[in-house]
Fold each of these.
Amino acid sequence: MSQVSVINVSSYDEGSIYNAICGHLEMAGKARLPHPGARVLLKPNLLSGRKPETAVTTHWSIISALIRRLQELGISDIVVADSPGGLYTPEHFRSVCSAAGLRRPGIEEYLNNDFTFGSKQTQKGFSVRSFNLITPVLQADYIINLPKLKTHAMTTVSAGVKNLFGAIPGLQKPGMHRRFPELAGFVRMLCELAATISPGLTILDAVDSMEGNGPGGGTVKHTGLTLASSDVFALDTAACRFMGLDPGAVPHLIAASGMGLLPDEVKYVGDPFAACPEPFTLPDATKSTSFIDSVPKPFRGAASRVMDWLLRSYPSIDASKCVGCGRCAESCPQHIIKLRGGKASMPRRDCISCFCCQEMCPVHAISAKRCLKNF
Ligand code: SF4
Ligand code: SF4
């Protein structure tokens, strides 16, 4: 059985957030917390340089409160690190941190300064033998995973497990999409990554969440919740239930179940746990991302490929909104996006529907389309 602590918080008021963080650490229990002297990594979701009120990134008040509490517990070797979408450079990281409100006293002095990476072996039986990870992940004695609750065009949900994809440096993330072009393989890789990184604690920021075309272009949904668990898979199970989703139908939890990573039972402590009164609106893309994934392998012939072509969601660019920044092209694992006349365009052929381009577009010029709608 795994424990998930629940604390309702109505806003990002610093005092309320601090109390919530203290409550979660207390409910986790001293034995599950880092010891004084440990090097602790805080891993927020810093997808892209967006303001806190857009609900794209983990809110700075959670990071600030956690640093304060860890210091009170005698832990001072703290680093805040992530590899946002795009290049893994000090300049890009600092610019994303600026937009997300992290360049303020109490956080700025803890921001990562090491932009190297190394490799970590996985356990026997995994499909990935080793992951390239940013150095702060490799050097940490204890990792606190700080995801934001969002919908996700490819994986349906972005919470604890998906947040750890940001431990893969820079443009090696699109490389992983290229290596695992189908959803089933990609989400299995995510589970292997989460099991390999094995955060000591995951604290979910769902005070303001994102629904619709997440993780970068959705709508803010005020949900007033924080969750925490030392079991990232238990936390994601709770997060899906909160969103109004059946965890047994969410791709990465299906994979986790098959790998024996899901807890038998989730025990809730703290405030009463209930699903959000209004279920989250899902991204257009996930209503049928890949028909072929649901067809048994022996029958995946020409007919099912035609159906997949008709039903699979693919990105579509609104040229009137495109500002020609090129971020979509930089993040495309298939290198199929071209800029012509200051506007982006991509052929559908060779697109693997990963929606990295949509995640990175700063002006929401990319949406998900399908040949057959309403199916
Ligand atoms: S065009 Fe977009 S969805 Fe298609 S492969 Fe490139 S990044 Fe992924
Ligand atoms: S579609 Fe978006 S990310 Fe791509 S070039 Fe246009 S504005 Fe930039």
Amino acid sequence: MLRLQAEGLRVLRSGREVLAKVSFSVASGEVYGLLGGNGAGKSTTLATFLGFLPPAEGRVCVNGREVGSDVPAARRAVAYLPEAASLYEHLDARENLRYFLQLAGAPCSDAAIDAALDRVWLDPEARSRRLGGYSKGMRQKVAIALAILRATDILLLDEPTSGLDPAAIDEFHALVRGLADAGKTILMVTHDVYGACQVADRIGLLRGGRLVAEFAAPPGGRIDTETVHRAFSARGAA
Ligand SMILES: Nc1ncnc2c1ncn2[C@@H]1O[C@H](COP(=O)(O)OP(=O)(O)O)[C@@H](O)[C@H]1O
Ligand SMILES: [Mg+2]
């Protein structure tokens, strides 16, 4: 089933075209990596799926329904991990999750919260410590646990691995892969070619607001990093 679709999407910000003719779709169980440099329009694309920016042309659909026709339904259907996840520094991991789940109108039991923290491999000893003392990787784990606990089928991740060390990135990708293999739909925005190739079933390359190339993993294999890197760093097409 196609969970996310962009069709001929054109988006203006402050009167300027920042997305043009963008079309792609993401099916259940798939990780789609939206790859692009700074200002390519990656976060804007996520914002349109969340109904924050109405398309000037074309359309975006969540679960087959046009976002603009029912924005609250689209937002209920997706868990969104923003570029800078804002969790509370003075609360511990469990308190943060309890608070944000309540805010989302989806309270969870302590057992469910701990199960989610197990799933993201957050050190049990750290769970009752304030986030103020956490590494970036640990914070991302709490944020992804929150996304998991929202129990949505679709996850939108905005540069979730930026600022993480290589070991934390590998762990994060294994986690994302596991979620997709369990049937979740994941749209992950990134500028990391290697990471995108490591985890994505398909990659869309966004440049200057246009989707200039798409790559798909061969059956049982991964997308070739060198091929994507060459396309990403190609000059003259910006
Ligand atoms: N709030 C905003 N108002 C006007 N223009 C914006 C705003 N946010 C981003 N833009 C512009 O939209 C374009 C795409 O930005 P963005 O989607 O944030 O790119 P990315 O996430 O790929 O770095 C950029 O040219 C950026 O300057
Ligand atoms: Mg961005």
Amino acid sequence: MANSLLQDITLEGKTALVTGGTKGIGKAIAERLARAGATVVVTARTRPSEANSEHQFIAADLTTVEGTATVVKEVQDNFGAVDILIENVGGLRAPGGGFSVLTDEHWENELRLNLLPTIRLDRALLPGMIAKKSGVVIHISSIAGRMPLWEVNMAYAASKAALNSYSKALANEVANKGVRVLTVSPGGVATEPMIQFMESLGGASGASPHEVYKNLVDRFGGVPMERMAEPEEVASLVGFLASPAAAYLTSANYMIDGGAVSVI
Ligand SMILES: NC(=O)c1ccc[n+]([C@@H]2O[C@H](COP(=O)([O-])OP(=O)(O)OC[C@H]3O[C@@H](n4cnc5c(N)ncnc54)[C@H](OP(=O)(O)O)[C@@H]3O)[C@@H](O)[C@H]2O)c1
């Protein structure tokens, strides 16, 4: 047992499903899991280009009940139960500006993207894991769930906080059934939407996206590493958590934020 924990991470023989696995953090996670030997299935609304199509692909809009049902059916028909479920679909859609700017539609859209797909997919795929007494579920949240910034992300932050709470409860429910449930909360990650968002905030200042991020976070206590993460850095953590080397880890929420969350 002790020796096996020191070996390189291997996921040979495992099947992993990564939602939103065609771009950004999800793409890096899919590559990390595949490199460790897993068979990887990715989902997104749009099929990736030839050059980026090394994994099995399922097209579906996960903000809808029908989209989730499509993913569940294709996974169950082709793979049975998955061993590793990475729920990464999400993102900031609602505008900043505080409570008075946010409509019902903004709030509902944020929950539809950042909370409900995960709940629906877990409800459908966890029974397969429980039946074989083995599985790992990783929810990709955000430090916004612990550190909301009303000027920037009130509804997004609240949807991620709900995800964190749900994830904790689920982890504790299924821990003695052989299924580990973990949350990973990145700070700023240099993905396309994040870089575009930083560029738009930077305007004509000439500052790089990393500098804009640093200046933004400086207003709320700062990011000690003074930069965003690369998607591969998040993938590296997820690869470890999904592996047998993390066999005693469940129910925890891992910040990967360059030190940005300043509370203990
Ligand atoms: N980037 C950051 O700074 C950061 C920080 C903290 C947390 N996060 C979290 O990390 C996760 C990934 O973020 P990212 O920046 O890597 O995003 P991204 O680069 O925009 O990638 C999002 C992925 O999800 C898919 N997707 C988007 N909407 C979808 C929908 N309605 N149904 C199905 N698939 C959908 C996209 O493909 P299609 O567009 O083809 O559907 C793509 O594969 C999110 O949960 C986000 O909240 C990101």
